[in-house]
Amino acid sequence: MILPISCFGSPILRAKTKNVSFDQSTKDLIHNMWETMYNANGVGLAAPQVNKDLRLFIIDTSSFQDDNDFPNHIPLKEVFINPIIKKEEGERWEFNEGCLSIPDIREYVKRKSVIHIDFYDENFKLKSKKYTGINARVIQHEYDHLNGVLFIDKISVLKKRMINRKLKDITKGKFNTSYKIRLFK
C-alpha cells in the first residue's frame, strides 16, 4: 500500500523516534515503505516521513548506477532498523540533496564520505557495516530523519532565508508532486 508522505511542517519530521519491535506490523510497514518510495521516485525513505515515529529507514541507490558523477558506484538496497552510526570519517563533500518531504527544494549539503553503522536488516539480523560515497550520504540523510533533522538544517542561514518562502508554501500545500502527501493542519 502506498502511504502518504509527511511534508515540511509536520511535527513528526522533528520528533525523536523510538526503537522498532520485530513483528509482522514492522514487515508490513517495510513493504509499504518500499512501494511508497518507488512510487515517489525516491532513493530513501524514513519512517517519520510516513508518519511513524520509528527508528527505521530504507534506501535503494541503484538510480546512481549510471551516473557519471559516481563511476565506481556499487548500488545498495537495504533496510535499516534501529540503526546507530558509530563513526563518520573521511572528507566532507558537498552534494545537491533533496527530500520527498520537502518537494521542489534542493540544496548543497556537506557530509562525511565514510560511515560505520550498526543496524538490523529486514530479517532482524544484526549487521555492522562500513559505507562510502553516495551510499554513505543517503544513509546519513535518512538517519538524520530519525533524529528530527532535515537536510535544510545543514545549510547556511543565508540559503535558508532564500528558501523560506518556498518552505512556507510547502506548509500551505502550495506545491505539486506526483505522489500522495500528508500536510499538517
Range of helix content? 10-25%
> What's the alpha carbon Rg, rounded to whole Å?
16 Å
Domain count: the total is 1
Largest sheet: 5 strands, antiparallel
What's the CATH superfamily, by name?
Peptide deformylase
What does this structure look like?
This protein has a single domain, classed as Peptide deformylase (Peptide Deformylase). Strand 4 and strand 5 (102-120) form a beta hairpin. By secondary structure, the chain is an alpha+beta fold. The model has no long low-confidence stretch (mean pLDDT 95). The longest helix has 16 residues, at 24-39. The strands form 2 sheets. A 5-stranded antiparallel beta sheet has the order 2-3-4-5-6, with helices on both faces. Strands 1-7 form a two-stranded parallel sheet. Helix content is 24%, strand content 33%. The two termini are 24 Å apart.
Short note summarizing the structure:
By secondary structure, this protein is an alpha+beta fold. Helices cover 24% and strands 33% of the residues.
Question: Could you give the topology of this structure?
Answer:
Layout: E1 5-6, H1 24-39, E2 44-46, E3 56-60, E4 77-99, E5 102-120, E6 126-132, H2 133-145, H3 157-171, E7 181-182
Parallel strand pairs: 1-7
Antiparallel strand pairs: 2-3, 3-4, 4-5, 5-6
